[in-house]
Amino acid sequence: MINIKDIKFKDPNWRPKVLVTHNDVPETGLKLLREKCEVTVVETDDRSELLQKIKGMDGIFWGNPDKLDAEVLDMAGPQLKSISTMTVGIDYVDLEEVKRRKIPLGYTPTVLNDAVADIGVGLAIAASRRFHEGRQKIESSEWERRQQWLLGQEIRDSTVGIVGFGAIGETIAKRLTGFNVGQFLYCGHRPKPAAEKYNAKFVPFMDLVAQSDFIFIICPLTNETRKMFNAEVFSKMKTTSVLINVARGDIVDQEALYDALKNNKIFSAGLDVMSPEPLPADHPLLTLPNCFIIPHLGSATIRTANDMAELAAMNVLCGLADEPMNAAAY
After folding, report:
1. What is the DSSP string of 192-225?
2. For this structure, is 132 an active site residue?
3. One of 132, 189, 283, 296 is an active-site residue; which one?
4. Where in the numbering of this chain does the D-isomer specific 2-hydroxyacid dehydrogenase catalytic domain appear (predicted)?
């Protein structure tokens, strides 16, 4: 890992111009950039401001999940030599266009593993133990005093399926070992050595769907995974199963999910991500007592935000200094 003291430009007098595309980036990242660069911050969510300010920039700290495409790169100009996002998912980046122009691209994996895993486990508990429905009952004065009221599902002895056993998937498995899980299943393109530590079994996707009591979606959004959780998949899931999505909203067909939850084809769902974001206040999913939704809070801790900002800033600086990025996207 390259540190700020290691950053040296070929021309020691050069102060590269860097655009930060959002005004809510933690100061820890901005401080690193300002030590070596002239920094401009986009103050609004208006794309026209971004396109205006990006002209002539040497580096870009992409602090928001808006489209990073040819339009942006054309407006920046041919001198642009370094970009980093402040996310682990980069589905909003035209990666082929960035590659074609040979511009180094960084992102921020690893540093958010713990925070996202915590949210995933929290959603699993909230959805399986009917937190949202319980709160609704209190608010409507429908609290019942009987033994078999609002009974939920337990993680203990359950089969947990992980769709995407990468770093976050492994961290969730690590968290869940304390819950005395019965078995871990996972699917993907190939077996993962890291899964052996948890005795996780590599199975086909549809086997995972049919056998799991809890399913965690933690895979990237690609053409292959877009709407992979559809009506057919929900029909194969256990009626007692709980679905957790901490990846990307478009991996789930939300109309099919609504139908599955409304008609008790599955037990419940916990969502940190959805489509679109922000989710409209009148969206049908918000009417369901068995759908626990939070507004994309996966990495939203003070420590993780600071870590992500520092990593993204160092990526930009590394690219400007013609050094390998600490976390390169390709």
Report:
1. -GGGGGGTPEE--HHHHHHH-SEEEE-PPP-TTT
2. no
3. 296
4. 18-326
